[in-house]
């Protein structure tokens, strides 16, 4: 990792890195600070103190965006901090390669040709393979280190076998089953979706409708309703009224729900009576005028009544009015139409009562003939349910629709196609999450994202994925057992996974011998990609110290990893804490542009100063610029990347490079043995304290706090104080003070954020330092390594630390006076002034100032500093500034012209007029 002859050829005549890194060397610096460094730590950090960061696999579907860069750089900085603290890190990058987006791209490339399943898989694999290589190249250009040669993908044969074996363990525990029940269904993708594959939009517009359902006349003889029957004419027809935002679900209606504890009334209008909740009368009358009856009915008195559904025509049978806990007094009419084939809550209530579950729409969301058997074409010719079928149902119902309206509300969309989804009952495979929920919750300290989940739909109707290893009989009934899955895994290991799609569905090789001749065949469903990526913990050598992904992964990869890990039941005898695959979860926000839009942020290429396309927007500062932006960002919330943000980052990076260049050009070997001044001791304390603050921030993964601490030290402690005091010493051949320890400490702090700059800076170290074989590369130094040999220290650092606030307060007062003198144009260089400090004789501040009195002039860069001396009343000018310390001590700093003659060499006045 040390310097090499090629790098030496381009060194500057003035030692130090260029203000901009040379393009021809950036690749070399990246390799040495990433790939070479990762290999070095594998051999030089202990195997028994390993830190594992497991990769949440990015999706192999196109170019990387700046969110990917934020994610990978955060991970990389965490790893580098661990190496600095003495641990060996293990980081094996991975990719998620199955799923619909890649399959759709494969289909798009077919130019309209109908692809078979095996053809689709071939094109999809090629797409994913090429994308992985491109994305890997980009990640490495960010200076991200890792075991790239051991990278894994979810489409690797070994990975797929591990996943199938995990599925087999879940089958053995009875956690896998197939059921006809509602799932999120995407008509645009023609597949079931998981909750994590949804995004919700607040601007969805639905055709909402107020619909009446005629209640069977037997209600009049229902004894609890006798007072109601007496209050209306015998000729009055009673209707239940519901309000729905999905009229297209009315053909699947199987019940109407009320709440036992709500009060209901009737509203009479033109010879008919409408049943609504008392709390919703006002909203109802705003749509349908009428007279409100004085008789009220409790919801439980309505249980057992029957009604007919006009959306089912003459073939419709009487259906029940039932109780449901979720019926609200605050919305709709207080009565809810239940379509158990199109609603999760509806399904649970109706299934418990043994009511039919129907969902008369096909994969594209178009009505089937079962939707309206009396005249099927009335609905089968309508648009899909997300493109206007609700209006077709409204038209079919005619006068039974009392009112309709456009209603804007929150609605789920397919996150890939950006089209609305529906809830549709289909035959799907599920994992029983309820069985393992308590154990999963026990594995987490904050697990709210698991609490509401009882089932996980793990099947998809696509070709590009890992097949669900189940068999089906001639009637379509599924069978899956541990032995069947084991047999199928064995065939896949021999023939390859593509044989599942190449062989005839009833090929006997896939059927266990004991099932031959019984009409079994294979299915075509594939596993949810979240099951794919959620199985990745099986690639780890142990429990991960950290999982770090975007905040959306709480209901995605974090959850699928936890659930598969718990479901696998392999915690016995392991050191996994409470069964979770991770010890710590870290999330980051999304990346946004200056206007808060997440769709058009600056690209990683632009942030590095590369054109993509067109001229670059920023100086070509390379990976360090992108990394420093990531480090400077409070990633616990959404992160902005914009021209102003990057300009500020670039300014900081240029300042770092300038400081390093100055230090490297000013260091001398003689400084190693030169006596240390009080100012040197102060500089060491300020550096050590900053390094400790940065260490704590970095250890807590709060890189932005470390970045801010470094900048505060650079601007206030180093540049405005120590460097200002050091300039004249350097000019006079002092040898560098404590610049070498400062360089080491500065580079150690920068190492996780800008490792390429650290390597470049070390290449430019002076020859005497290169010849010192004991001098470790900053990337190789332990963070706790001492900065200065304790034998060189002549002052107690703890005492100096306590004195610094006093000295800095006085320094600020003096600087304020100097600035006023400059503003009035009576002063140029600060050495053309003297200072008188006036403080109480018995005050603590006096004790501190006396302690450093011989060096105060050099420390504050003035010609002289006197304590409690008389202020020359005849001085040509003077500027007085008061100061106050935290302990209440007060004092005054008076800036005056110098008392003595200026030395022509060092410009410091001397009473005898001598030259230095």
Automatic annotation (TrEMBL):
Alphabetical UniProt keywords: Aminoacyl-tRNA synthetase, ATP-binding, Ligase, Nucleotide-binding, Protein biosynthesis
Gene3D superfamilies in alphabetical order: 1.10.730.20, HUPs (3.40.50.620), Valyl/Leucyl/Isoleucyl-tRNA synthetase, editing domain (3.90.740.10)
Record keyword Ligase present: yes
Record-linked SUPFAM superfamilies: Anticodon-binding domain of a subclass of class I aminoacyl-tRNA synthetases, Nucleotidylyl transferase, ValRS/IleRS/LeuRS editing domain
Aminoacyl-tRNA synthetase class Ia domain mapped to chain residues: 34-641
Residues annotated as transmembrane: none
InterPro entries: aa-tRNA-synth_I_CS, aa-tRNA-synth_Ia, Anticodon_Ile_BEm, Ile-tRNA-ligase, Ile-tRNA_ligase, M/V/L/I-tRNA-synth_anticd-bd, Rossmann-like_a/b/a_fold, tRNAsynth_Ia_anticodon-bd
Gene Ontology MF terms: ligase activity
Lineage top rank: taxon: Eukaryota
Residue stretches making up the Methionyl/Valyl/Leucyl/Isoleucyl-tRNA synthetase anticodon-binding domain: 681-832
Pfam families: Anticodon_1, tRNA-synt_1
PROSITE patterns in UniProt: AA_TRNA_LIGASE_I (PS00178)
NCBIfam families in the record: ileS
The protein, known as: isoleucine--tRNA ligase
Organism: Apiospora phragmitis
Upper lineage: Eukaryota, Fungi, Dikarya, Ascomycota, Pezizomycotina
């Amino acid at each position: 990792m040390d310097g090499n002859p090629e790098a030496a050829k381009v060194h500057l005549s003035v030692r130090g890195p260029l203000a901009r890194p040379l393009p021809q060397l950036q690749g070399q610096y990246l390799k040495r600070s990433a790939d070479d460094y990762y290999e070095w730590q594998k051999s030089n950090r202990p195997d028994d103190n390993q830190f594992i960061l497991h990769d949440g696999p990015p999706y192999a579907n196109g170019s990387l965006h700046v969110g990917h860069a934020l994610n990978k750089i955060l991970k990389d900085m965490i790893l580098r901090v661990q190496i600095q603290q003495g641990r060996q890190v293990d980081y094996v990058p991975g990719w998620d390669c199955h799923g619909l987006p890649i399959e759709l791209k494969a289909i798009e490339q077919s130019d309209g040709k109908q692809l078979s399943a095996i053809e689709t898989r071939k094109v999809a694999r090629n797409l994913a393979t090429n994308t992985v290589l491109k994305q890997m190249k980009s990640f490495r250009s960010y200076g991200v280190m890792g075991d790239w040669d051991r990278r894994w993908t979810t489409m690797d044969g070994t990975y797929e076998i591990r996943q199938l074996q995990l599925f087999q363990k879940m089958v053995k525990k009875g956690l896998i089953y197939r059921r006809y029940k509602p799932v999120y269904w995407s008509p645009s993708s023609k597949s079931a979706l998981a909750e994590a594959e949804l995004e919700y939009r607040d601007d969805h517009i639905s055709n909402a409708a107020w619909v009446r359902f005629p209640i069977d006349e037997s209600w009049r003889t229902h004894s609890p309703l006798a007072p109601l029957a007496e209050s209306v004419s015998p000729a009055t027809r009673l209707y239940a009224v519901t309000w729905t935002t999905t009229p297209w679900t009315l053909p699947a209606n199987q019940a109407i729900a009320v709440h036992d504890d709500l009060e209901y009334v009737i509203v009479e209008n033109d010879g008919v009576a409408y049943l609504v909740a008392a709390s919703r009368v006002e909203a109802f009358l705003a749509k349908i005028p009428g007279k409100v009856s004085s008789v009220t009915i409790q919801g439980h008195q309505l249980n057992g009544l029957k009604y007919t559904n006009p959306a089912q025509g003459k073939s419709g049978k009487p259906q029940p009015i039932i109780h449901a806990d979720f019926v609200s007094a605050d919305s709709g009419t207080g009565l809810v139409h239940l379509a158990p084939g199109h609603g999760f809550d509806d399904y649970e209530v109706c299934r418990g009562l043994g009511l039919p579950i129907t969902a008369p729409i096909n994969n594209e969301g178009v009505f089937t003939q079962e939707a309206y058997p009396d005249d099927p074409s009335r609905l089968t010719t309508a648009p899909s349910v997300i493109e206007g079928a609700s209006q077709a149902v409204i038209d079919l119902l005619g006068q039974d629709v009392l009112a309709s309206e456009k209603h804007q509300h929150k609605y789920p969309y397919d996150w890939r196609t950006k089209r609305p989804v529906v809830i549709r009952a289909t035959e799907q495979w599920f994992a029983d999450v309820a069985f393992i929920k308590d154990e999963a919750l026990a594995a987490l300290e904050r697990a709210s994202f698991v609490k509401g989940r009882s089932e996980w739909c793990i099947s998809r109707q696509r070709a590009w994925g890992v097949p669900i290893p189940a068999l089906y009989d001639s009637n379509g009934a599924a069978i899956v057992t541990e032995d069947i899955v084991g047999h199928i895994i064995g065939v896949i290991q021999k023939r390859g996974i593509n044989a599942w799609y190449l062989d005839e569905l009833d090929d006997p090789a896939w059927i266990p011998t004991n099932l031959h001749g019984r009409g079994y065949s294979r299915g075509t469903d594939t596993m949810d990609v979240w099951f794919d990526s959620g199985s990745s913990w099986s690639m780890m050598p142990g429990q991960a110290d950290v999982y770090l992904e975007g905040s959306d992964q709480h209901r995605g990869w974090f959850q699928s990893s936890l659930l598969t890990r718990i479901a696998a039941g392999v915690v016995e005898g392991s050191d996994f804490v409470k069964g979770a695959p991770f010890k710590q979860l870290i999330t980051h926000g999304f990346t946004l542009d200056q206007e808060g839009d997440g769709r058009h942020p600056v690209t990683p290429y632009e942030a590095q100063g590369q054109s993509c396309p067109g001229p670059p927007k920023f100086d070509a500062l390379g990976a360090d610029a992108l990394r420093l932006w990531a480090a400077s960002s409070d990633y616990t919330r959404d992160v902005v990347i914009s021209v102003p943000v990057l300009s500020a980052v670039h300014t900081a990076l240029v300042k770092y490079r300038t400081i390093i260049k100055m230090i490297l050009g000013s260091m001398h070997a003689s400084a190693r043995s030169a006596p240390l001044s009080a100012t040197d001791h102060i500089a060491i304390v300020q550096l050590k304290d900053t390094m400790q603050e940065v260490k704590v921030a970095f250890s807590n993964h709060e890189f932005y706090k470390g970045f801010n601490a470094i900048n505060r030290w650079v601007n206030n402690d180093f540049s405005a104080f120590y460097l200002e005091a050091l300039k004249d010493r350097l000019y006079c051949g002092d040898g560098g003070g404590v610049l070498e320890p400062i360089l080491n400490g500065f580079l150690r702090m920068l190492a996780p954020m800008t490792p390429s700059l650290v390597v470049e800076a070390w290449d430019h170290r002076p020859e005497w330092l290169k010849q010192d074989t004991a001098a470790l590369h900053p990337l190789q130094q332990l963070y706790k390594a001492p900065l200065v040999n304790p034998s060189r220290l002549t002052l107690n650092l703890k005492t100096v630390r306590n004195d610094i606030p006093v000295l800095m307060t006085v320094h600020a007062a003096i600087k304020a006076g100097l600035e006023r003198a400059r503003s009035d144009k009576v002063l140029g260089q600060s050495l053309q002034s003297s200072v008188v400090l006036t403080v109480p004789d018995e005050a603590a501040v006096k004790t501190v100032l006396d302690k450093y009195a011989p060096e105060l002039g050099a420390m504050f860069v003035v010609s002289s500093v006197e304590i409690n001396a008389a202020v020359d009343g005849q001085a040509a000018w003077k500027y007085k500034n008061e100061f106050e310390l935290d302990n209440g001590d007060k004092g005054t700093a008076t800036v005056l012209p110098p008392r003595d003659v200026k030395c022509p060499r060092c410009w410091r006045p001397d009473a005898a007029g001598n030259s230095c």
